[in-house]
Amino acid sequence: MPKGKTPNDPTDAAAVIQALEALLAQLPPDTGSLASSISLAKRKHVRRIVGQLRGRLADLHVALDSVKHPASIFDPSDPQTIGELIAQTLLIQPSQPLGSLLPFYGSGVYAIYYHGAFKHYLPVSGSNTPLYVGKVDPKTRGASTVEEQGAKLYERLVRDHAKNIKSAENLALGDFDCRYLVVKSAWQNTAETYLIDRFRPIWNNEVGICFGIGKHGDAAVTRSNTRSPWDTLHPGRKWAWSPGNKSNPKSPEVIGQEITKHFQRHPAER
Questions:
Q1: In angstroms, what is the C-alpha Rg of the chain?
Q2: What is the DSSP letter of 22?
Q3: Bridge-based pairing state of the strands 96-97 and 132-136
Q4: Which of 84, 107, 162, 208 has the fewest CB atoms within 10 Å, i.e. the most exposed one?
Q5: Mean pLDDT in residue range 65-74
């Protein structure tokens, strides 16, 4: 900026307007012809610059409007909004003991909570921060009734998660509760994403700390995987400790330290 000018100097605004008009004048009516004249290697670079400019120009477009724009707009048709509504509805459901669920129909989303004394989980024990959140797809794609969805939520919670927790030598199933919500088919994905982003649950793969509870045993001839952090911290699943599986490069102590640091960065919601 020339000496003596301020950021709001009208001559600067005039220069920006002139530059934009000159740029528009150079663009051909058919931008496809311009794109075809650029090499593939160059297109990626140009797309990045155009993307940056698009955002800045959109902000300028709003700032130039004499009528103030609202800070936020509620759009019920926005998948992000629907996902958040579903997730919030899940969080007000009554919690239930994970080991006492009776069979029920439906697919959707769920959260698993801990209220025990395992030392690494004490920061979230008894809190509203789950150790794990997940989604379950319906038995039949596009299912319109809970019967068509099948008993998928129940099966995931009981036959998978409860069973795995019971197998762990240092966990007790009685220390776990859950919340679940049956959701109309196709809306469970956005709700799960919202829950993971909000709570950063340490058992979820996306968080990258103590993942692996959802992993299933391999056939004997293919057991050559690295033991998951979850199985390393919670030994007990026999297939995970078969001779063919490799030890995880992280020890239980290191995984515990990572969990402690994680909870310091992301305190539990009470």
A1: 26
A2: H
A3: unpaired
A4: 208
A5: 83
